[in-house]
Protein 1
Amino acid sequence: MSEPDADTDSDGGRYHLRLYVAGQTPKSLAAMANLRCVCEEHLAGRYDVEVIDLLLNPKLAAGDQILAIPTLIRRLPAPLKRIIGDLSNTDKVLVGLDVRPRGGGS
Amino acid sequence: MLDNLLARAALPKAPTGISGFDDITFGGLPAGRPTLICGAAGSGKTLFGITFLVHGAVQFNEPGVFISFEERAEDLTANVASLGYNLDGLVAEGKIAIDYVRVERSEIEESGEYDLEGLFVRLGFAVDSIGAKRVVLDTIETLFSGLSDTALVRSELRRLFGWLKDRGLTAVITGERGEGQYTRLGLEEYISDCVVLLDNRVQDQITTRRLRVVKYRGSAHGTNEYPFLIDEDGVSVLPITAAGLIHGVSTDVVSSGVPAMDAMLGAGGFYSGSSVLLSGLAGTGKTTLSAILADAACNRGERCLFFVFEESADQICRNTRSMGLDLQKHIDSGKLRFEAARPSLYGLETHLARMHRDLVRFKPHVVVIDPISALRGPAVEVQSTLLRMVDLLKSRGITAVFTSLQNDGGLTDGADPALSSLMDTWIKLVDMEANGEMNRVLYVIKSRGMSHSNQFREYRMTNAGVEIIAPYIGPEGVLTGTARVTQVARKYAAQLRRRQDAEQRQNELHRRRGVMESQIAEMRGALEAQEQEASRLLAEDDAREVALETDRAAVAARRGDTE
């Protein structure tokens, strides 16, 4: 579900996200759906998402220190951010991605 | 008994290769099941785990996976390199896989439900990539601090241990020691097959590592606390049990190296495999006598292990060289080994543990412990240590010589009665003060099973070794030193005088005999003269009788009557 869009910002403002799942579990499916909603709403046009299924590529798990499933990694912008869970708590996702400052409102 | 237990143990075991541990667990950890190793920080949990994996990979052809939650793989490799483990090499050979799982709460934002499938994936991948049979999780409790959902972590751990069992993996899970329970977070709740407790106790500023198998479902195991060692030779556990008095005994006799002492002992030396105590004050020659004994053993071609607590090996070699002993020769030929350590360097248990390890490795025939009195500690502990030490040596049939420095010169006081009753032979070295000089005297207090000498013997240390001098016991007791020398001179003079007297008496007798004999000859001469006279008279009488008869016949013929 990569969605590179023509954006006003240069690459510096782009979000490179990577979502790790393990098979098509309810939690994984929920995470994908929730991520799409959040991104579309808050990062429209300036993100791309790579979904990695660890059941297919188990050796990728160690590289990004994946422990919990699902895990969302913000690879860019630096620093690396890590959010675990099905991303159902949108506020925490936004805080975790630094889209919204910690404790701030929308 | 061990064989019985082994025969009964249907439970398959995965040997750890840790010397001693496999003995107390009768084979190792439960194969295909998780084992919990718990202990406080620095108690050696990680090293135990690494050792389990390395031995598995090297000795038992069982590859292993190390999942580290605390140390990075590089740090781990560096840390165990000092034990002689080449983790990098084993990783390159595909015998060990190391995965560092980083759990840092501050870096993790939680949003919604999750599980720990990622850990399972990583573990599964690592296991599959090398065909692992063994797994170490060190320290899995880190998960609790990294993730907020404790209930989830618990259920995932339960699932993990189930998963490990399903895969038939022999797993070691380390856990931090907690108050009132084995682990801080109650891991023992999930891992109930085998729990091993590591302990690192400090007493009187001396640390002793101990290990205890708390439980082992489905198997017999040693229940005591056993000291264990972590040193340059890796981890070793020391199953030192008082195995009862069922030592095989020997009637072979080994020489003490001093012929006169062998003679004093009656049987011509010590029984092979017996315990000998040499006690005496400073400077009585305990170490020297031990060194002579060691030298004699090495000359017989036996191996001798010399534990020294107060001197260095070089010092002993130098000092005994002045007596004509060349111990260096035996060291070079590998028959003699010195193990020198300060008594305060380790706790009693650790000393014992090291000793045990050295005995197993060096397999000596003769062991010298010099001096045993250097081992200080609470009386109960010292005694139990000595008891086990004696036991350890006896059960292996090793002739053991202990030296003990005594504080007072009494015969039976001063020496630890418990120690002396453990000994088969007790030789006491005493300084005797008399006439302004100190002389060394030795005495065999006891020697079980031998009709040993009951005498004090003076001995001297000369540049040709130890010389035991024939006893001189005068009316005032044993005489030593110059007193002995003068007494011997006096005795010699008296002897001379007695001999002269006897000769004189002999001469007198001789003279009298001469006189008597000449008198006898004179009397015999007189008697003979008388006898000759008597026989002459008798002959005259006879002749006269014949003449009378002849005369009477002639007269009758002349008368003419014939009758």
Protein 2
Amino acid sequence: MRTPRFAVSLMEGALRGIMSRQAAGSVVRSVSLPTITIPPVAPGASELEVHITSLMVREGTLALGASNEPGETVLAPPSPHSQDLMIRMTEPFLERLLNEAWDSTPHVAEVRRRFDVPDPRSLLDVFKGAMDVLLARGLRRDRIRVDRSWVEADAVLQYSCPSVRLLEGGRVEITACPLHIGARLRPRMEAATPRGFLRWLKGSLMPRKGREQEEKEVVDLADLSKEQDLRIVKATARLSIEGGDLMVKIEDVDMDVRLDWGLPGDVIEKISAWIMEQTAERFPPIRVRLPIESIMIPVLGVSPVVRLNELRGGKGYLDVHADVDFIEVPPPISPLPRFLADGQLMLVHREGCPTAHQVPENAKIGYFSLYDALHDGYRGCPDCLSIYRHANTTEDGDVGRSVERVMKKV
Amino acid sequence: MDKEPDIVISMKEGAINRALAASFYANQGNGLTALLSKALQIDGADRGLRLLDPPMVVMLDDGTTVATFGAEAWGMVLGVRLEADVSASARLGAWIADDQALMEIQDIDLDMISSPAG
């Protein structure tokens, strides 16, 4: 039974009376707060549960404060923003996200380089035993000529989880990042030696054009394996948005490199500079898949499509600005279709049909033409298009033949 | 010392209204209907509420929110089911205390959408 209009007026009056301050005061209702589940920020990371802890309404804006731990928090009015959404993350929260993402980031980099040593004597001074190898072949020291010498270095840089501090302008400072270096160092030299008697004889019997009178030999002076723990004292990184993810990329590194690897001083200096350069260059970029991309809004049960636009930050916080869209809300259309199809029951209604409002919202399909609706397989609603209630175009997709069959039955 | 939240999510009312509409068109606003029914205490076995169109909210500079929604409300009175399609506009205050969201209905306006004749 429909409620008469006067009853609604009475109901309104009664509600206003109840809520008037002269009566029992305004009506206050309490609702338990849902938790927000933040999907993993990186493959293999775990979900995070955050609790809504504060709420603030400002002109045109709603702000919610959320924390890992339940309990009330104090929300400062958020700065105005032009985009749909602004998410402010505190430094500890961002660090937590970065730590989660770090676990799935490759931490190891392998690097290789050859360092020329212009003065081979510096190597021979360090690796005295190397000369003994040549002398043991019966050669006289004054008959060996060293053409060039170098050190081949292979190093494995293993980074550990950094601590981060947010700076102004979307930058972060990385501190206390342990670094382990495992290196293999091979000092080598190319020495020219006069040919021995047998080789001289062979060369004389089978002369070849341009054959050298000397033989060159690469001599390994040593094969060293070194391990060393270092620490990145301070590094700065830039935060950016790449492909919808938050990226942290190192820009410069300040570290103390003291290598006690038993090589000549100038070689150690070169290797130290190289390690510093490689540490900055190979520092793995941390990719944080921001959870807002796939978050489900509690109560409403919908997931927005989030487009990250901009990062802004200050000391101790990072602001992520984004626009949101909902695929469930298409752009406005005009004119409105006059036929409403029910995608679940496969019925088409006239606009204004009393049963049309029972069609679930997510099953509604608007048609401007009844012909098109029938062509797509919809049957007529028994209330408003009863003549087509047995229409069936699923066999041949031919509306004309379907209507013909219907008319014959009528 | 007052504790600050780990994250602050600030949403413009335009985005909130699109989210409300999305909820209505995706799942009939089931979660929202349950919330409204509970807040208005019409969630019993002898009474109920169904949203007819997407709700709209406007955030005012005094910290209150005006919510407007069309709903079909029904209730059993002396064994007779009475129902009405109404358009309601409520001025609400909202805050959080003791892990609960509290909503104060400060004012309400009701309009009849359909007459007994339909």
